[in-house]
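Much of what follows relies on a compact textual record of a protein's fold. A complete example follows; check for yourself that the lines match position by position.
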Amino acid sequence: MATKAFPKQSKVIRLNYETSYAYVCVTASDSKPTFLLLHGFPSSSYDWRHQISELAAAGYGVLAPDLLGYGDTDKPVEIEKYSFKNMGGHMAGILKKEKLRKVIGVGHDWGSGLLTYMGVYQPELFLGLAFLSAGYVDPGTIYAIDAMNTATEKAFGYPCFGYWPLFGSVDGAKLLDQHARAVTSLFYPAEPESWKTDLGPLNAARSWIVADTEAPLPSWLKPEEAATHESIMAVGGYTGPLNWYKCAMEGLNSKDASGLTDERKCVDIPTLLVVGERDAITRLEIHEAGTKAWASNLRIERLECGHWPQLEKKDELLKVLESFAVNVADKV
């Protein structure tokens, strides 16, 4: 979480007298741009720890919030609070507070969905858009989970969304709260392909978690880092994080985008997509095709990793982000 992991670089603000956000903020030097880092599930600003230190050391600005439901940021129980429309307004408010006119947006996992919304509805805020693991997410996407599982099983030999019913269930958050290390073992795997059997199929995640299954940590996640991650997720638990899924499954994001034309969905902002060649859930085949359909100025980079390039391939990712920053800054 921002205030404890980065005490000298963190801030807490209240937006519109209603919602408090914690975030890491580092001022840019040498007229370099600032990166807005939007994490995914199950994460927080802490999962950007390598990028925060390395980008700041290179003179770039960094703004990395604990997103709604996570870390030191508020955790409302109302599902509608987790719409991209609502949270996109929050991000714009933080950028205004920090007097940041244009930034390079970087989204990972669910952060990519939020970044898509902002890129479509608030393009004036961005020099460039960088999507990690998950690419551009059509704002009008209707999450018909059964159909999505059927389609991915046909395409890849296993379903990719079998854990979503657990996340949408009444007891999902309680189960995750009660089995912290099992959740860490499942979502930060040493072997990315394990998701083909342990996460994607229907009921596989529930079985893993209920059995309190643990697996060895990957080499890129130290025991003390896993413990810090678990302590962050213990503050407020998984109710807020799972509300991101429930909001999508209940169609609240697609409802907000119902009047959006295909022309308006297209983005011409310079766009970067970084995908993991071994990511078994946010499959590169899906996210490359989906992003190509809507981003007219697109660069794609493939890394030899699973779902967590910011952790698994931090050095390679830094080089890619810096080269992207140079490219978009030259076009200002």
Remarks:
- The chain has a mean pLDDT of 95.
